[in-house]
Specification:
The chain is mostly helical and 180 residues long. The chain folds into two domains: 30 residues; 136 residues. The protein is 73% helix and 0% strand.
Length: 180
C-alpha cells in the first residue's frame, strides 16, 4: 500500500516512512549473537563505507556512493542491531539481579549507553556533513560512538567475556538457599 502510494505521489515523506518501517523490521527480527560478531560486522562495514565514500572516486572516476545511493539503510540499521543486542544483555542482567535479589538500579544499562552514543554519532555526522559541505559516511561516526562506549562499560563492569562469547543466553544463575 505504501509503495503504491509512493509510486503515485513520489513524495519524499512516503519513502522515508517505508525506510523507517524496513529498518524497524530488520532490527526487530535480526539478532546479533554476541559482541564478537557485532564488532567484526561494524568494523568491516565501517571500512567498506569509508572506502566507497572517500576512495571510490580514485578508482571509478566518480564517487560511486553518491551516484548510487547517498544514504542507505545499513547506516541506521547495523548500529541499531548493536543497540538491540545491548538491550538483550540488559534484560539478562535484570533477570540475573532479580534471581540474586539485587536492586535493578545497581545493574548496568548498556542500552542507554548505546542509545546515547547512537544519537551523538548521528549528531556528529550531521555536523561534519554541514561543516565540510560534503557527504560523510555515517558509519564513520556511528560505529565509534556506539561500539567504544559499550566496550568500555562492559570492560569496566567485567561483562566483556559474557558479551563477547554470547554465553549470557545460556547462563543459569543458581540461587543459594539456606536451610536452617
Amino acid at each position: 500500500m505504501m509503495v503504491f502510494l509512493w509510486l503515485l505521489t513520489g513524495h519524499w515523506l512516503v519513502i522515508d516512512v517505508i525506510g523507517m518501517v524496513l529498518c524497524t523490521a530488520v532490527i526487530t527480527y535480526v539478532r546479533l549473537p554476541n559482541l564478537q560478531v557485532s564488532t567484526y560486522l561494524l568494523c568491516g562495514l565501517l571500512i567498506y563505507d569509508v572506502f566507497w565514500v572517500y576512495f571510490s572516486e580514485r578508482i571509478f572516476r566518480s564517487n560511486v556512493m553518491i551516484d548510487v545511493a547517498m544514504s542507505t539503510a545499513r547506516n541506521p540499521v547495523i548500529p541499531g542491531l548493536l543497540t538491540s543486542f545491548a538491550l538483550r544483555f540488559d534484560n539478562f542482567k535484570s533477570k540475573q539481579s532479580d534471581l540474586l535479589n539485587k536492586s535493578r538500579l545497581m545493574t548496568v544499562n548498556y542500552f542507554r549507553c548505546c542509545l546515547i552514543g547512537y544519537a551523538f554519532g548521528l549528531f556528529l555526522a550531521g555536523v561534519f556533513a554541514t561543516i565540510l559541505n560534503a557527504p560523510q559516511p555515517a558509519l564513520l561516526f556511528l560505529v565509534p560512538s556506539t561500539l567504544l562506549p559499550l566496550w568500555l562499560l562492559a570492560y569496566k563492569k567485567n561483562d566483556i567475556g559474557y558479551m563477547w562469547s554470547g554465553s549470557f543466553n545460556e547462563i543459569k544463575i543458581k540461587r543459594e538457599v539456606n536451610i536452617i
